[in-house]
Design brief:
383 residues, alpha+beta, Butyryl-Coa Dehydrogenase, subunit A, domain 1, Butyryl-CoA Dehydrogenase, subunit A, domain 3, 3 domains, four-stranded antiparallel sheet, three-stranded mixed sheet, binds flavin-adenine dinucleotide
Length: 383
């Protein structure tokens, strides 16, 4: 594995950093307060190729690879975690459609997602009763032979990121009876404005508030046979493979949030004085800063390893789980220390430390909880 980024990776990282500093960071507090990312931010990401970093240029992507993608998500998350998760999920959806879809599906959706001006890519796997265990999903898709093999979707999804501004949802639904569990699930591309699909009210969340998280209701939602992504009853594998890549995105998001928390803590510790000296002079604060830095750098290396393995065509499921587990748990610890270093001010909205802690909190939950990452890692250790 190369430890220094290539020219392309450096260029993507710099591009993302410049956009994050100039456009995203000044809006981050407002995005959190208003629970909305301005359309111009998403369009800006699209114009820079950041919504399809690891997607082939043939279908509108930047073709810069998985490592460049991970570096770019970190940079955006350093400025705004909500924008980073929006970017990450749209990249994940674009990659999945390119990888598993037909050329016609890729042409139809991916260029739109890459541009960022037609809506987001959304990943609709979870349900109210099926999060860690998506094989228990109850949303169904039944074939309607009288209409040229159309599929009709019924059921409900829960927690769908970006769902209020979706161009397309990848929707998983049961195409065999519940006893078939994960072997009876297929995957469909459903337009954001499809008839029979109702997008519910966004959840009022603790963090990543700018990224809408919505329930979906499918009631006789009809899609053509050509909307199936991949083969019938093979949808679960698509979900698991997409989530492996998604976990690299979430580890990068967690690292970016933690970097912001550390940088702000360093600034604050140099400035704030107690007992006649900057608090940075107190050993207890120095140790915190050292531990924060160490966690971030270790998480970065784990995340880069997973991204490099993906980029070079190696199996990376275990490495992505390790990176996601370590980076997300580290981000929470780092952000918690950042609030402590800021003292009482850290507990107010006047400083970003409290937002970072709220934003970091979800990274051990979505795209597989820490407990599920540990199951993946232990399974491989015991194999
Ligand atoms: C802000 C946000 C955005 C999200 N975005 C999306 C999205 O875009 N698309 C999507 O499909 N989903 C999304 N999700 C859903 C997310 O992936 C699920 O919340 C997550 O997988 C956990 O599922 P659950 O909430 O049903 O918890 P449960 O599965 O009910 O788990 C509850 C607790 O039990 C633990 N647990 C469960 N099973 C085991 C086990 N076998 N061993 C040990 N512990 C276990 C869990 O780790 C957790 O701590 C999002 C969630 C949030 C909060």
């Amino acid at each position: 594995m190369r430890l220094s980024p290539s020219e392309t990776q450096t260029l993507v990282q710099r591009t993302a950093r410049e956009f994050a500093e100039r456009v995203v960071r000044p809006l981050a507090a407002d995005i959190d307060a208003k629970a909305r990312i301005p359309d111009a931010v998403v369009r800006g990401l699209g114009e820079l190729g950041l919504l399809a970093v690891n997607v082939s240029p043939d279908v509108g992507g930047a073709g810069a690879g998985a490592v460049a993608y991970a570096l770019a998500v970190q940079e955006i998350a350093r400025a705004c975690a909500s924008t980073a998760v929006t970017m990450s999920v749209t990249n994940m959806v674009g990659e999945a459609i390119t990888h598993f879809g037909t050329p016609a599906q890729a042409r139809h959706y991916v260029a739109d997602l890459a541009r960022g001006d037609a809506g987001l890519g959304c990943f609709a796997l979870s349900e109210a009763g099926a999060g860690s265990d998506p094989g228990a999903m109850t949303t169904t898709a039944r074939r309607d032979g009288s209409h040229g093999g159309d599929w009709v979707l019924d059921g409900a999804k829960q927690w769908i990121s970006g769902g209020s501004a979706a161009r397309v949802f990848i929707v998983w639904a049961r195409t065999r009876p519940i006893e078939a569990a994960s072997k009876g699930i297929s995957c469909f591309l459903v337009d954001g404005n499809a008839a029979g699909l109702r997008v519910g009210r966004p959840e009022d969340k603790m963090g990543v508030r700018g990224s809408s998280t919505v329930p979906l209701e499918f009631s006789g939602c009809r899609v053509p046979a050509s909307a199936m992504l991949g083969a019938e009853n093979e949808g679960f594998k698509i979900a698991m493979m997409a989530l492996d890549g998604g976990r690299i995105g979430i580890s990068s998001q967690a690292i970016g949030i933690a970097r912001a928390a550390l940088e702000e803590s360093v600034r604050y510790a140099k400035d704030r004085r107690t007992f006649g000296a900057p608090i940075a002079e107190h050993q207890a604060i120095k140790w915190k800063l050292a531990d924060m830095q160490t966690r971030i750098e270790a998480a970065h290396l784990l995340s880069m390893r997973a991204a490099w393995m993906k980029e070079t065509g190696r199996a990376f499921s275990r490495e992505a789980a390790i990176a996601k587990l370590f980076a997300s748990e580290s981000a929470i610890a780092v952000c918690n220390d950042a609030v402590q270093i800021h003292g009482g001010y850290g507990y107010t909205r006047d400083f970003a430390a409290e937002r970072h802690l709220r934003d970091a909190r979800v990274t051990t939950i979505y795209e597989g909880t820490s407990e599920i990452q540990r199951l993946v890692i232990a399974r491989s250790a015991l194999a």
